[in-house]
Design goal:
By secondary structure, the chain is α/β, with parallel strands linked by helices. It has one domain: Glutaredoxin. The chain contains five helices and nine strands, in the order βββααβαβαββββα.
Length: about 180
Amino acid sequence: MNRPMPRQPFPDLDLPTLDGERFVLSESNPDWYTMLVCYRGLHCPICKDQLTNLQDRLDKFAELGIEAIAISMDSQERAGKAREKWGLDRLRIAYGMSEAQARSAGLYISSARTEQEPERFSEPGLFLVEPDLTLYFASIQTAPFTRPPFDELLGPLHYVKEHGYPARGELAEQAG
């Protein structure tokens, strides 16, 4: 499975949002980064905690020039229920990501274990994408737990911005 590499193009995404518009990554115009927070869906209580935590820090990310959006493979109905039940009135939410789109972003895919879960869904991922669509940072999980805490991301991002710290992990695996 190929995963997006730092300093390389990230797949362009084009998804509907709950505000009735479309999120097109290549048309995003952040001052610095677009932060894609890919979550498992309505069935995931850890996703609720993560996204409410993100919503509480949207202003801090905006001060750095980072625009955030939450993305899932959930249907419009399920994404809308998550927004309502989780109180996500400020966080932009895109839905309907296809399995192919999720895989192109390097996300792992799981199948339902309970009837509350959709038949297939992506595991979590967090990406910082530059305005030219190159990947700066990725955190991809194979399970619902252990996600990067947003407060622990904010401090280093201040350093990155102040010192022009480059993307790391950009060396492709070499044969031999």
